[in-house]
Protein: Ribose-5-phosphate isomerase A
Organism: Phaeobacter italicus
Amino acid sequence: MTGELSPIDKAKFVAAKRAAEMVEDGMRVGLGTGSTAAWLVRCLGEMVRSEGLRIKGVPTSTRTAELAREVGIDIISLDEAKWLDLTIDGADEFDGDLNLIKGGGGALLQEKIVATASDRMVVIADKAKEVETLGAFPLPVEVIPFGWQTTQALVEETLVAMNVMGRKTTLRMNGDAAFVTDEGNHILDLHLNRIGNARQLALVMNQIPGVVENGLFIDICDTVVVGYGDGKVEVRDINEGTIETDRLEFMESDNLFADLGD
Ligand SMILES: O=C(CO)[C@H](O)[C@H](O)COP(=O)(O)O
């Protein structure tokens, strides 16, 4: 791609570029999924090529695996890695406690497994993803195809029992067919508007037979790198209670901006 990036893409790029600086030689790194994570993978690929960075990447989707291979990152499976030093991923929403909604890209299951098997999870996001209360973004819930409509009915009953504000659920589609995840499952999107008790909802959803996992990431993220369209980045760490501010340059001349697929 050539030409001017949109402010949102610039924000995603600077967040990804700043997070890439946290990756050290020899690390095993979980690679997230989505357009922001794709910037990260490109930045890491560039560091592998130009600085000789040696890392092992564990991708969270077939899409990310393809991109990582394309840019020259060594890929291993989670079971080969066993445990990761760091996972860097995007998010659909994050709140002040760094709890997240993820799964807009349909990869929440692998993303949650990989992030949980990491010493540290760093989220990269543009400022627009920050919310006071999670829930404006529809909550993705991965369900197995067998009896998915029954599972959907149980999910809706549970939302009523929990007195959650919005209760509409929709099956995610891919054109005319149901969307299928890398694990062969479907996704229900829960239009809740506002999630009062995200921790409780996350636990309760996973008790419903047929539900594989939900997109609430509670107490998993350690750090969020927030990108702004003017190149500003904030690194907020929930464990340290710190906020660092930085400013990055766009270097549209380098290889990162070629072949944008995501
Ligand atoms: O959870 C995800 C994929 O399952 C993504 O991280 C999330 O949807 C954010 O995507 P993007 O960076 O494209 O805004």
Observations:
- The chain has a mean pLDDT of 94.
- The longest strand covers residues 121-126.
- Helices lie at 7-20, 35-51, 62-70, 78-81, 108-116, 148-161, 198-205.
- The first helix runs from residue 7 to 20.
